[in-house]
Amino acid sequence: MLRRIAALRPPPRAATPVGAIAAPYSSKSTSIPQKQQRVRDHAFDGIMEVQKRVRRFHALYSLLLYAAAPTAPSRAGGSGAVSVPFTRLGALARRQLRLAPLDAGRFLLRHAHAFHLFLHPVHRMLHIRLTPRAAAALGAEADAVAAALPGASVLRLRKLLLLAPPHRRLRLEHIHLLRRDLGLPDDFAESVIQANPSLFRLTPDGFVEFLPSPTDPPDLTVAAVERARERHYREHRAPGSAEEDARFAFPIRFPPGFKIGKYFRIAVWKWQRLPYASPYADVTGHDLRSLEAKRRMEKRAVAAVHELLSLTVEKRTTLERLALFRDALGVPKKIKEFLLKYQGIFYISTRGNQGKLHTVFLREAYYKGELVDPNAIHAARRKLEEVLMISPQKANLDRMFTSMGRGWDELGGSGRGGSELRDEFLGDGRGRKKSGDADGAESGEDSGVESLYIE
Protein backbone atom coordinates (compact mmCIF):
# COMPACT_ATOMS: atom_id res chain seq x y z
CA MET A 1 0.00 0.00 0.00
CA LEU A 2 2.77 2.45 0.90
CA ARG A 3 4.52 1.72 -2.37
CA ARG A 4 1.33 2.49 -4.33
CA ILE A 5 0.84 5.84 -2.51
CA ALA A 6 4.47 6.81 -3.14
CA ALA A 7 4.08 6.00 -6.81
CA LEU A 8 1.08 8.32 -7.08
CA ARG A 9 2.90 11.29 -5.54
CA PRO A 10 4.34 13.90 -7.98
CA PRO A 11 8.13 14.04 -8.25
CA PRO A 12 9.83 16.59 -5.99
CA ARG A 13 10.60 20.03 -7.48
CA ALA A 14 14.21 20.82 -8.17
CA ALA A 15 15.75 23.44 -5.95
CA THR A 16 16.07 26.87 -7.56
CA PRO A 17 19.63 28.27 -7.44
CA VAL A 18 20.26 31.41 -5.44
CA GLY A 19 19.64 34.51 -7.50
CA ALA A 20 17.79 32.65 -10.27
CA ILE A 21 14.38 33.78 -11.50
CA ALA A 22 11.44 31.46 -11.38
CA ALA A 23 9.82 30.08 -14.50
CA PRO A 24 8.06 32.68 -16.65
CA TYR A 25 4.73 30.85 -16.56
CA SER A 26 4.42 31.63 -12.82
CA SER A 27 2.99 35.05 -13.74
CA LYS A 28 0.85 35.91 -16.73
CA SER A 29 1.30 39.70 -16.45
CA THR A 30 4.05 41.58 -18.27
CA SER A 31 3.55 44.84 -16.35
CA ILE A 32 5.18 45.98 -13.15
CA PRO A 33 2.80 46.30 -10.18
CA GLN A 34 1.28 49.76 -9.75
CA LYS A 35 1.54 49.99 -5.96
CA GLN A 36 5.09 49.82 -4.68
CA GLN A 37 6.91 50.82 -1.56
CA ARG A 38 8.53 54.19 -2.08
CA VAL A 39 12.07 54.23 -0.66
CA ARG A 40 14.12 57.39 -0.29
CA ASP A 41 17.67 57.51 -1.58
CA HIS A 42 19.74 59.82 0.62
CA ALA A 43 22.43 60.22 -2.02
CA PHE A 44 20.02 61.97 -4.39
CA ASP A 45 18.32 63.89 -1.58
CA GLY A 46 21.73 65.22 -0.52
CA ILE A 47 22.26 66.60 -4.01
CA MET A 48 19.00 68.51 -3.77
CA GLU A 49 19.96 70.01 -0.42
CA VAL A 50 22.95 71.59 -2.15
CA GLN A 51 20.81 72.63 -5.11
CA LYS A 52 18.52 74.49 -2.73
CA ARG A 53 21.37 76.91 -2.05
CA VAL A 54 22.22 77.11 -5.73
CA ARG A 55 18.65 78.07 -6.67
CA ARG A 56 18.52 80.75 -3.98
CA PHE A 57 21.89 82.08 -5.14
CA HIS A 58 20.74 82.38 -8.75
CA ALA A 59 17.48 84.00 -7.66
CA LEU A 60 19.29 86.68 -5.66
CA TYR A 61 21.91 87.09 -8.36
CA SER A 62 19.18 87.72 -10.95
CA LEU A 63 17.66 90.36 -8.68
CA LEU A 64 21.10 91.90 -8.25
CA LEU A 65 21.51 92.25 -12.02
CA TYR A 66 17.94 93.54 -12.33
CA ALA A 67 18.50 96.16 -9.66
CA ALA A 68 21.82 97.23 -11.20
CA ALA A 69 20.46 97.57 -14.77
CA PRO A 70 21.41 99.16 -17.09
CA THR A 71 24.92 99.33 -15.62
CA ALA A 72 25.22 95.54 -15.30
CA PRO A 73 27.63 93.99 -17.82
CA SER A 74 26.29 91.41 -20.25
CA ARG A 75 28.84 88.73 -19.41
CA ALA A 76 28.36 86.85 -16.15
CA GLY A 77 32.11 86.58 -15.53
CA GLY A 78 32.48 90.35 -15.17
CA SER A 79 29.54 90.85 -12.83
CA GLY A 80 31.66 90.90 -9.70
CA ALA A 81 31.98 94.70 -9.96
CA VAL A 82 28.21 95.22 -10.01
CA SER A 83 26.89 96.42 -6.66
CA VAL A 84 23.47 97.57 -5.48
CA PRO A 85 22.16 98.87 -2.16
CA PHE A 86 21.06 96.07 0.09
CA THR A 87 17.83 97.89 0.92
CA ARG A 88 16.79 97.71 -2.73
CA LEU A 89 17.85 94.05 -3.06
CA GLY A 90 16.01 93.14 0.15
CA ALA A 91 12.85 94.86 -1.03
CA LEU A 92 12.97 93.01 -4.36
CA ALA A 93 13.55 89.69 -2.58
CA ARG A 94 10.53 90.23 -0.34
CA ARG A 95 8.29 91.30 -3.21
CA GLN A 96 9.36 88.90 -6.01
CA LEU A 97 10.78 85.91 -4.11
CA ARG A 98 8.35 86.27 -1.16
CA LEU A 99 11.17 85.99 1.37
CA ALA A 100 10.77 86.89 5.01
CA PRO A 101 12.32 90.23 6.07
CA LEU A 102 15.48 88.60 7.48
CA ASP A 103 15.86 85.70 5.04
CA ALA A 104 17.78 87.62 2.38
CA GLY A 105 20.27 89.03 4.87
CA ARG A 106 20.63 85.66 6.58
CA PHE A 107 21.41 83.94 3.28
CA LEU A 108 24.00 86.58 2.35
CA LEU A 109 25.76 86.19 5.69
CA ARG A 110 25.76 82.40 5.50
CA HIS A 111 27.40 82.59 2.08
CA ALA A 112 29.95 85.32 2.65
CA HIS A 113 32.30 83.65 0.16
CA ALA A 114 29.73 84.21 -2.60
CA PHE A 115 28.24 87.63 -1.70
CA HIS A 116 30.20 90.50 -0.23
CA LEU A 117 28.56 93.19 1.93
CA PHE A 118 30.42 96.49 2.19
CA LEU A 119 29.85 100.13 3.04
CA HIS A 120 29.88 102.18 -0.16
CA PRO A 121 32.64 104.83 0.07
CA VAL A 122 30.52 107.52 -1.62
CA HIS A 123 26.89 106.72 -0.82
CA ARG A 124 27.75 105.51 2.73
CA MET A 125 25.12 102.79 2.36
CA LEU A 126 25.32 99.05 2.72
CA HIS A 127 25.93 97.53 -0.73
CA ILE A 128 26.05 93.94 -2.00
CA ARG A 129 28.08 92.37 -4.82
CA LEU A 130 29.58 89.06 -5.80
CA THR A 131 32.95 87.90 -4.57
CA PRO A 132 35.69 87.20 -7.14
CA ARG A 133 35.38 83.48 -6.44
CA ALA A 134 31.65 83.39 -7.19
CA ALA A 135 32.07 85.59 -10.27
CA ALA A 136 34.82 83.26 -11.52
CA ALA A 137 32.55 80.24 -11.04
CA LEU A 138 29.78 81.90 -13.08
CA GLY A 139 32.32 82.86 -15.73
CA ALA A 140 33.57 79.27 -15.93
CA GLU A 141 30.03 78.02 -16.52
CA ALA A 142 29.45 80.64 -19.22
CA ASP A 143 32.69 79.61 -20.92
CA ALA A 144 31.74 75.92 -20.77
CA VAL A 145 28.32 76.63 -22.29
CA ALA A 146 29.91 78.72 -25.04
CA ALA A 147 32.46 75.98 -25.77
CA ALA A 148 29.69 73.38 -26.17
CA LEU A 149 27.59 75.65 -28.38
CA PRO A 150 28.79 74.65 -31.87
CA GLY A 151 28.53 70.88 -31.42
CA ALA A 152 27.03 69.32 -28.31
CA SER A 153 24.33 71.92 -27.68
CA VAL A 154 23.06 71.80 -31.27
CA LEU A 155 23.03 67.99 -31.18
CA ARG A 156 21.08 67.89 -27.91
CA LEU A 157 18.47 70.30 -29.25
CA ARG A 158 18.06 68.32 -32.48
CA LYS A 159 17.61 65.05 -30.62
CA LEU A 160 15.08 66.73 -28.33
CA LEU A 161 13.01 67.78 -31.34
CA LEU A 162 13.22 64.25 -32.74
CA LEU A 163 11.53 62.99 -29.58
CA ALA A 164 8.31 64.69 -30.73
CA PRO A 165 7.16 62.70 -33.77
CA PRO A 166 5.56 62.94 -36.25
CA HIS A 167 5.92 66.72 -36.71
CA ARG A 168 9.21 66.92 -34.75
CA ARG A 169 8.53 70.33 -33.30
CA LEU A 170 8.20 71.80 -29.80
CA ARG A 171 7.14 75.10 -28.34
CA LEU A 172 9.94 77.62 -27.91
CA GLU A 173 8.77 78.64 -24.45
CA HIS A 174 8.95 75.01 -23.26
CA ILE A 175 12.50 74.65 -24.51
CA HIS A 176 13.34 77.97 -22.87
CA LEU A 177 12.34 76.58 -19.48
CA LEU A 178 14.57 73.54 -20.10
CA ARG A 179 17.54 75.51 -21.46
CA ARG A 180 19.69 75.32 -18.33
CA ASP A 181 19.20 71.56 -18.03
CA LEU A 182 20.19 71.15 -21.68
CA GLY A 183 23.25 73.37 -21.29
CA LEU A 184 21.91 76.01 -23.69
CA PRO A 185 22.67 79.73 -23.33
CA ASP A 186 19.94 82.15 -22.40
CA ASP A 187 19.93 83.57 -25.92
CA PHE A 188 19.71 80.15 -27.60
CA ALA A 189 16.88 81.37 -29.82
CA GLU A 190 19.41 83.60 -31.59
CA SER A 191 22.73 81.82 -30.99
CA VAL A 192 21.47 78.29 -31.75
CA ILE A 193 18.18 78.34 -33.65
CA GLN A 194 18.48 81.42 -35.85
CA ALA A 195 22.21 80.89 -36.27
CA ASN A 196 21.54 77.49 -37.90
CA PRO A 197 18.73 78.05 -40.44
CA SER A 198 19.55 74.77 -42.19
CA LEU A 199 18.96 72.77 -38.99
CA PHE A 200 16.09 74.57 -37.23
CA ARG A 201 13.08 76.63 -38.21
CA LEU A 202 11.29 79.04 -35.91
CA THR A 203 7.63 79.27 -36.89
CA PRO A 204 5.54 82.42 -36.46
CA ASP A 205 3.31 80.68 -33.90
CA GLY A 206 6.25 80.02 -31.55
CA PHE A 207 7.33 76.48 -32.47
CA VAL A 208 10.82 75.19 -33.20
CA GLU A 209 10.90 72.61 -36.00
CA PHE A 210 13.53 70.04 -36.90
CA LEU A 211 14.97 70.27 -40.41
CA PRO A 212 16.78 67.21 -41.86
CA SER A 213 20.34 67.77 -42.94
CA PRO A 214 22.83 65.62 -44.89
CA THR A 215 25.43 66.36 -42.20
CA ASP A 216 23.47 64.50 -39.51
CA PRO A 217 25.35 61.52 -38.04
CA PRO A 218 23.89 58.09 -38.84
CA ASP A 219 23.28 57.36 -35.15
CA LEU A 220 21.25 60.51 -34.52
CA THR A 221 18.13 58.49 -33.69
CA VAL A 222 19.91 55.90 -31.55
CA ALA A 223 18.78 56.21 -27.96
CA ALA A 224 21.20 56.33 -25.04
CA VAL A 225 19.72 53.20 -23.52
CA GLU A 226 20.49 51.30 -26.73
CA ARG A 227 24.14 52.33 -26.57
CA ALA A 228 24.36 51.41 -22.89
CA ARG A 229 22.62 48.10 -23.55
CA GLU A 230 24.99 47.17 -26.36
CA ARG A 231 28.06 48.21 -24.35
CA HIS A 232 26.94 46.25 -21.29
CA TYR A 233 26.13 43.17 -23.38
CA ARG A 234 29.58 43.18 -24.98
CA GLU A 235 31.46 43.71 -21.72
CA HIS A 236 29.46 41.43 -19.40
CA ARG A 237 28.19 38.73 -21.70
CA ALA A 238 28.29 35.44 -19.83
CA PRO A 239 28.64 32.06 -21.54
CA GLY A 240 25.21 30.68 -22.40
CA SER A 241 23.37 33.94 -21.68
CA ALA A 242 20.35 34.66 -23.83
CA GLU A 243 20.57 37.67 -26.10
CA GLU A 244 16.81 38.07 -25.82
CA ASP A 245 17.15 39.02 -22.14
CA ALA A 246 19.26 42.06 -23.00
CA ARG A 247 17.66 43.12 -26.27
CA PHE A 248 14.96 45.35 -24.73
CA ALA A 249 16.33 45.64 -21.18
CA PHE A 250 16.95 48.81 -19.16
CA PRO A 251 19.70 49.27 -16.56
CA ILE A 252 17.88 48.87 -13.26
CA ARG A 253 19.28 49.62 -9.80
CA PHE A 254 16.78 49.79 -6.96
CA PRO A 255 17.37 52.12 -3.99
CA PRO A 256 18.86 50.70 -0.79
CA GLY A 257 16.18 49.09 1.34
CA PHE A 258 13.80 48.39 -1.54
CA LYS A 259 12.07 45.06 -0.95
CA ILE A 260 11.98 42.83 -4.02
CA GLY A 261 9.67 39.84 -3.78
CA LYS A 262 9.56 36.76 -5.96
CA TYR A 263 6.59 37.83 -8.04
CA PHE A 264 7.98 41.32 -8.44
CA ARG A 265 11.19 39.85 -9.82
CA ILE A 266 9.17 37.83 -12.30
CA ALA A 267 7.21 40.90 -13.40
CA VAL A 268 10.43 42.90 -13.89
CA TRP A 269 11.99 40.03 -15.85
CA LYS A 270 8.96 39.85 -18.13
CA TRP A 271 8.86 43.63 -18.54
CA GLN A 272 12.55 43.69 -19.52
CA ARG A 273 11.87 41.20 -22.35
CA LEU A 274 8.82 43.11 -23.60
CA PRO A 275 9.51 44.63 -27.07
CA TYR A 276 8.78 48.31 -27.64
CA ALA A 277 9.22 50.96 -30.32
CA SER A 278 12.08 53.42 -30.22
CA PRO A 279 11.24 56.83 -28.67
CA TYR A 280 12.30 58.40 -31.99
CA ALA A 281 9.91 56.23 -34.03
CA ASP A 282 6.56 57.50 -35.28
CA VAL A 283 3.79 55.33 -33.82
CA THR A 284 0.79 57.49 -34.69
CA GLY A 285 -0.51 54.94 -37.20
CA HIS A 286 -0.24 51.91 -34.91
CA ASP A 287 -3.26 50.13 -33.49
CA LEU A 288 -3.11 50.68 -29.72
CA ARG A 289 -6.39 49.11 -28.67
CA SER A 290 -4.98 45.80 -27.44
CA LEU A 291 -3.61 45.35 -23.95
CA GLU A 292 -0.26 44.16 -25.27
CA ALA A 293 0.08 47.29 -27.43
CA LYS A 294 -0.68 49.50 -24.43
CA ARG A 295 2.03 47.78 -22.40
CA ARG A 296 4.52 48.29 -25.20
CA MET A 297 3.59 51.96 -25.46
CA GLU A 298 4.07 52.32 -21.72
CA LYS A 299 7.57 50.91 -22.06
CA ARG A 300 8.18 53.27 -24.97
CA ALA A 301 7.15 56.17 -22.70
CA VAL A 302 9.75 54.98 -20.17
CA ALA A 303 12.35 54.99 -22.95
CA ALA A 304 11.29 58.51 -24.00
CA VAL A 305 11.71 59.91 -20.48
CA HIS A 306 15.00 58.03 -20.18
CA GLU A 307 16.22 59.62 -23.41
CA LEU A 308 15.18 63.15 -22.41
CA LEU A 309 17.02 62.83 -19.09
CA SER A 310 20.04 61.47 -20.97
CA LEU A 311 20.08 64.64 -23.10
CA THR A 312 20.34 66.90 -20.03
CA VAL A 313 23.73 68.00 -18.79
CA GLU A 314 23.34 66.61 -15.27
CA LYS A 315 20.90 63.79 -16.09
CA ARG A 316 18.09 65.35 -14.09
CA THR A 317 15.27 67.86 -14.43
CA THR A 318 12.21 68.93 -12.50
CA LEU A 319 8.96 67.05 -12.79
CA GLU A 320 7.19 70.28 -13.72
CA ARG A 321 9.47 70.83 -16.73
CA LEU A 322 9.17 67.21 -17.73
CA ALA A 323 5.38 67.53 -17.71
CA LEU A 324 5.63 70.19 -20.43
CA PHE A 325 6.77 67.48 -22.86
CA ARG A 326 4.24 64.88 -21.71
CA ASP A 327 2.23 64.86 -24.93
CA ALA A 328 5.33 64.71 -27.13
CA LEU A 329 6.82 61.82 -25.12
CA GLY A 330 3.58 59.89 -24.82
CA VAL A 331 3.63 59.88 -21.01
CA PRO A 332 0.36 59.38 -19.07
CA LYS A 333 -1.28 62.34 -17.36
CA LYS A 334 -0.38 61.14 -13.87
CA ILE A 335 3.30 61.45 -14.61
CA LYS A 336 4.46 61.28 -10.99
CA GLU A 337 2.69 57.97 -10.34
CA PHE A 338 3.98 56.71 -13.67
CA LEU A 339 7.62 57.40 -12.79
CA LEU A 340 7.28 56.06 -9.25
CA LYS A 341 6.28 52.76 -10.80
CA TYR A 342 9.83 52.43 -12.17
CA GLN A 343 11.95 53.25 -9.14
CA GLY A 344 14.83 51.16 -10.45
CA ILE A 345 15.23 53.52 -13.45
CA PHE A 346 14.17 56.92 -12.09
CA TYR A 347 14.23 58.62 -8.71
CA ILE A 348 11.99 61.52 -7.68
CA SER A 349 13.36 63.71 -4.91
CA THR A 350 11.12 66.13 -3.02
CA ARG A 351 13.94 67.75 -1.06
CA GLY A 352 15.05 71.32 -1.49
CA ASN A 353 11.81 73.31 -1.41
CA GLN A 354 9.54 72.01 1.38
CA GLY A 355 8.20 69.28 -0.90
CA LYS A 356 6.97 71.76 -3.53
CA LEU A 357 9.72 70.85 -6.01
CA HIS A 358 10.07 67.40 -7.58
CA THR A 359 13.35 66.53 -9.28
CA VAL A 360 13.60 63.46 -11.51
CA PHE A 361 17.01 61.73 -11.62
CA LEU A 362 18.24 59.12 -14.06
CA ARG A 363 19.43 56.57 -11.54
CA GLU A 364 21.98 54.79 -13.74
CA ALA A 365 23.83 58.08 -14.41
CA TYR A 366 24.84 58.47 -10.74
CA TYR A 367 26.97 56.44 -8.38
CA LYS A 368 27.06 57.37 -4.69
CA GLY A 369 25.75 60.84 -5.41
CA GLU A 370 28.28 61.63 -8.14
CA LEU A 371 27.73 61.85 -11.88
CA VAL A 372 29.29 58.83 -13.57
CA ASP A 373 30.14 60.67 -16.81
CA PRO A 374 30.78 64.34 -15.90
CA ASN A 375 31.18 67.10 -18.45
CA ALA A 376 32.65 70.59 -18.56
CA ILE A 377 29.39 72.37 -17.72
CA HIS A 378 28.78 70.11 -14.73
CA ALA A 379 32.36 70.64 -13.53
CA ALA A 380 31.91 74.43 -13.74
CA ARG A 381 28.68 74.26 -11.76
CA ARG A 382 30.41 72.21 -9.10
CA LYS A 383 32.78 75.12 -8.52
CA LEU A 384 29.85 77.33 -7.56
CA GLU A 385 28.47 74.60 -5.30
CA GLU A 386 31.82 74.38 -3.53
CA VAL A 387 31.77 78.14 -2.91
CA LEU A 388 28.26 77.98 -1.47
CA MET A 389 29.15 75.04 0.78
CA ILE A 390 32.04 76.84 2.51
CA SER A 391 31.19 77.45 6.13
CA PRO A 392 30.57 81.11 7.09
CA GLN A 393 32.85 80.53 10.09
CA LYS A 394 35.80 80.76 7.71
CA ALA A 395 34.84 84.31 6.73
CA ASN A 396 35.86 87.08 9.14
CA LEU A 397 32.40 88.63 9.45
CA ASP A 398 33.30 90.49 12.64
CA ARG A 399 36.16 92.33 10.95
CA MET A 400 34.03 93.06 7.90
CA PHE A 401 31.16 94.59 9.85
CA THR A 402 33.44 96.45 12.25
CA SER A 403 34.79 98.33 9.24
CA MET A 404 31.25 99.03 8.11
CA GLY A 405 30.06 100.56 11.37
CA ARG A 406 26.27 100.69 11.10
CA GLY A 407 26.00 97.85 8.56
CA TRP A 408 24.13 95.49 10.89
CA ASP A 409 21.22 97.90 11.32
CA GLU A 410 20.77 98.33 7.57
CA LEU A 411 21.05 94.59 7.01
CA GLY A 412 18.24 93.84 9.43
CA GLY A 413 15.95 96.58 8.17
CA SER A 414 13.45 98.05 10.60
CA GLY A 415 13.02 96.89 14.16
CA ARG A 416 15.52 94.62 15.94
CA GLY A 417 16.44 92.67 12.82
CA GLY A 418 20.05 93.87 12.74
CA SER A 419 20.80 92.89 16.32
CA GLU A 420 19.07 89.53 15.79
CA LEU A 421 21.32 88.69 12.86
CA ARG A 422 24.40 89.89 14.74
CA ASP A 423 23.56 87.65 17.68
CA GLU A 424 22.96 84.74 15.33
CA PHE A 425 26.28 85.02 13.49
CA LEU A 426 28.68 86.71 15.92
CA GLY A 427 27.51 86.32 19.51
CA ASP A 428 24.77 86.47 22.10
CA GLY A 429 24.58 90.26 22.36
CA ARG A 430 26.75 90.46 25.49
CA GLY A 431 30.11 90.06 23.86
CA ARG A 432 30.26 86.27 24.11
CA LYS A 433 30.92 84.61 20.74
CA LYS A 434 29.38 81.34 19.74
CA SER A 435 31.72 78.36 19.84
CA GLY A 436 33.65 78.14 16.60
CA ASP A 437 32.19 81.33 15.09
CA ALA A 438 35.15 83.54 15.85
CA ASP A 439 38.03 81.15 15.40
CA GLY A 440 39.35 83.06 12.44
CA ALA A 441 39.10 86.43 14.22
CA GLU A 442 40.82 85.27 17.41
CA SER A 443 43.67 83.52 15.62
CA GLY A 444 44.25 86.43 13.27
CA GLU A 445 43.46 84.29 10.21
CA ASP A 446 41.51 85.73 7.31
CA SER A 447 39.93 83.84 4.43
CA GLY A 448 40.74 86.68 2.04
CA VAL A 449 37.13 87.03 0.91
CA GLU A 450 36.13 90.32 2.48
CA SER A 451 39.67 91.74 2.68
CA LEU A 452 39.67 92.04 -1.10
CA TYR A 453 36.85 94.55 -0.89
CA ILE A 454 37.07 96.44 2.38
CA GLU A 455 37.86 100.07 1.58
What would the keywords be for this entry?
8% strand; 45% helix; mainly alpha; 455 residues; 3 domains; disordered C terminus; globular; single chain; Arc Repressor Mutant, subunit A
Largest sheet: 3 strands, antiparallel
Strands, count: 11
Strand order of the largest sheet: 1-3-2
Radius of gyration, Cα only, in angstroms? 28 Å
Structural class estimated from helices and strands: mainly alpha
Show the helix and strand layout.
Elements: H1 2-8, H2 42-68, E1 83-85, H3 86-96, H4 103-110, E2 115-119, E3 126-130, H5 132-147, H6 149-162, E4 169-171, H7 172-177, H8 179-182, H9 188-194, E5 200-202, E6 207-210, H10 224-235, H11 244-247, H12 262-273, H13 291-311, E7 316-318, H14 319-323, H15 326-329, H16 335-340, E8 346-349, E9 359-362, E10 366-367, E11 370-371, H17 376-388, H18 397-404, H19 407-412, H20 417-425, H21 439-443
Antiparallel strand pairs: 1-3, 2-3, 4-6, 5-6, 7-9, 8-9, 10-11
Would you kindly provide a written description of the structure presented here, covering whatever features stand out?
The chain is mainly alpha-helical and 455 residues long. It folds into three domains: 42-67 and 81-135 and 387-425, no CATH class; 149-210, Arc Repressor Mutant, subunit A; 224-374, no CATH class. The protein is built from 21 helices and eleven strands. Strands 1-3-2 form a three-stranded antiparallel sheet. Strands 4-6-5 form a three-stranded antiparallel sheet. A three-stranded antiparallel sheet has the order 7-9-8. A hairpin with a 4-residue loop joins β5 (200-202) and β6 (207-210). α2 crosses α3 and α5 (132-147) runs antiparallel to α17 (376-388). The chain is globular. The termini are far apart. 31% of the residues are buried.
